[in-house]
Structures are given as structure tokens and as C-alpha cells.
């Protein structure tokens, strides 16, 4: 280890960035911690976990960990210059950031694949096989996402001498993005075809509204995922340019992805929606009891 320089080197620009990033990071941590807490409470009550709950729990944990690591990395790198800090800290942060980011991306891809297999309706033999076996495949998908994230961390150290394009491809983020694109096209096509059949046959399907809501939710997730992937590429391009407005914008967008998509999951999932309503009812009950207590004391 080299000598530690604890001199505070942050400028007004750095302080502004740190405030914005900190607010975003802690908001995202709270949102994903809510998903993890509700999932664990559901597991305690039901004594079982279905496939979607497993993916959402893994996704919430990976995003919470990702926000913790990237926040610590961003704040520390702005306060101290890495050349005068501890020489062994930078590789450690780099590996942790690589693992948390890749696990977040792959967990999101697993969620999209699960929705595609569960919701889409195709008559191909392989697709029917996946629909039947998806509950058994989900744990292996999550395990594969962890293994791939570890492999990407190894490739990250080996790819530093190559160009940014090869550096990005070695991460495998592009593969996860291609999986999301393919799943999104299949799923949106299946939902659109079902919607057209219901309109042409003039049949009233009670699930039509749910299908339209699913299309909107999945399309918004696809757009957010695409923006996050683009920001990841641009971040690696602009990573060597200090105090660049583009770098700040990319950081804001990267911090927003785990928070915004988790909010979409909360309000589109009935279990999390009931938990939010229950929390609001609990707060209103507490406020009402406090008000009654104050009224009785004054009288």
C-alpha cells in the first residue's frame, strides 16, 4: 500500500454531484430494501417462494448492493484522488462494481425472460417445454447470472489493455441486452396478436385490460433497460474525462435505473401494492390516534 493522503480535494462541482448522487442512491436503496423486506415477509407467511418472488428478491438484493457500491465508489473518488489514496482500493472497488453491475443487468434479463415465457403464447415445442419447466429453470438462471457476473469480473481485469468496445463486449452486457431485446419482441408480438384477435372477433375478454397494462409496463422496462445499457457504454467512453457534464448526466441516469424500474415493479405487483397501501393505512391510524390523544389531553 502507498501512503494515504486524506486531504479533502472536492470542489463545488464535486459537492453538487455528491449531493445529487447521494439523494438518488439512498432513494434507490430504500425502494429496493422495501422489495426485499416485503418478499421476505411474504416468504415467512406463505412458507414458500414462487418463481417470480425469487427473481424479485434476487433483483432487489443485487440492486441494493449495486447502489451501495457505486455510491461508495463515486463519493470516494470525488473526495480523494486515487493516485494519492490506497493503491489496493481501486482494483477492489473495480471488481465489486463490475460484479454488482453485471448481476443487476443479468437479474433484470432473467426477469424479462421469465415474463416472456409465462405470458407469451406460442405453439412451438421448445417454448411449450420452457413454459412447463420454467419454475425449475429459474433457480438455475439466477445461479448462472451470478457465475456470469464472476466471469465478467475476471475478464474486466484482463481487458484493461484493450479498446473500450472490446472492454464492453468482454463484460457480456451486450449479451444480456440482446436477450432482453429478443424476449421483448416475442412478448410484445404475442400480446399484440392476442389483442388483435380479441378486437376482430368482437369478444369481450376480461384479461384485455391486464394485457394492455402488461404491454405498457414491459415496454417501459425495455426503454429504461436500453437507456441504462447506452449509459453504461458512454460511461466507459467518458470515464477518463474528469468533471465532464456528460459524465454527471450518465451517473444520474445510471442511478435512476434501479430506482425507477423498481418503482414500476412495486406499483404493477399486487403484493407490493398492498404493502404500500398497508403502510399508508398504518400511518393514518397512528396520526388519528395521536390526534385523539391530543384532543383528550386538551379537554
From TrEMBL:
Superkingdom assignment: Eukaryota
GO cellular component, one term: membrane
GO molecular function terms noted in the UniProt entry: bitter taste receptor activity; G protein-coupled receptor activity
InterPro entries given in the database record: TAS2R
Main location: membrane
Keyword tags: G-protein coupled receptor, Membrane, Receptor, Sensory transduction, Taste, Transducer, Transmembrane, Transmembrane helix
Residue ranges of the TM segments: 15-43, 55-73, 137-154, 166-192, 218-239, 246-267
Protein family membership: Belongs to the G-protein coupled receptor T2R family.
Name by which UniProt lists this protein: Taste receptor type 2
Amino acid at each position: 500500500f502507498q501512503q494515504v493522503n486524506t486531504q479533502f480535494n472536492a470542489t463545488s462541482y464535486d459537492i453538487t454531484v455528491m449531493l445529487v448522487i447521494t439523494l438518488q442512491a439512498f432513494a434507490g436503496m430504500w425502494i429496493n430494501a422495501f422489495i426485499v423486506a416485503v418478499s421476505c415477509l411474504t416468504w415467512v407467511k406463505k412458507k414458500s417462494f414462487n418463481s417470480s418472488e425469487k427473481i424479485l428478491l434476487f433483483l432487489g438484493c443485487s440492486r441494493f448492493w449495486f447502489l451501495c457500491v457505486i455510491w461508495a465508489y463515486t463519493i470516494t473518488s470525488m473526495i480523494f484522488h486515487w493516485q494519492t489514496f490506497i493503491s489496493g482500493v481501486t482494483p477492489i472497488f473495480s471488481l465489486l462494481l463490475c460484479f454488482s453491475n453485471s448481476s443487476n443487468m443479468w437479474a433484470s434479463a432473467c426477469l424479462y425472460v421469465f415474463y416472456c415465457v409465462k405470458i407469451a403464447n406460442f405453439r412451438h415445442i421448445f417454448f411449450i417445454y420452457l413454459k412447463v419447466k420454467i419454475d425449475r429453470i429459474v433457480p438455475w438462471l439466477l445461479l448462472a447470472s451470478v457465475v456470469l457476473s464472476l466471469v465478467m469480473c475476471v475478464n474486466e481485469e484482463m481487458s484493461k489493455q484493450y479498446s473500450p468496445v472490446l472492454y464492453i463486449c468482454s463484460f457480456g452486457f451486450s449479451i444480456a441486452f440482446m436477450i432482453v431485446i429478443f424476449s421483448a419482441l416475442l412478448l410484445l408480438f404475442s400480446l399484440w396478436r392476442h389483442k388483435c384477435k380479441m378486437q376482430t372477433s368482437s369478444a369481450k375478454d376480461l384479461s384485455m385490460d391486464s394485457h394492455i397494462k402488461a404491454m405498457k409496463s414491459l415496454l417501459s422496462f425495455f426503454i429504461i433497460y436500453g437507456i441504462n445499457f447506452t449509459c453504461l457504454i458512454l460511461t466507459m467512453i467518458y470515464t477518463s474525462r474528469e468533471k465532464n457534464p456528460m459524465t454527471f448526466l450518465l451517473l444520474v441516469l445510471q442511478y435512476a435505473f434501479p430506482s425507477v424500474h423498481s418503482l414500476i415493479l412495486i406499483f404493477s405487483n399486487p403484493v407490493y401494492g398492498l404493502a404500500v397501501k398497508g403502510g399508508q393505512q398504518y400511518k393514518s391510524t397512528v396520526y388519528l390516534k395521536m390526534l385523539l390523544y391530543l384532543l383528550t389531553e386538551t379537554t
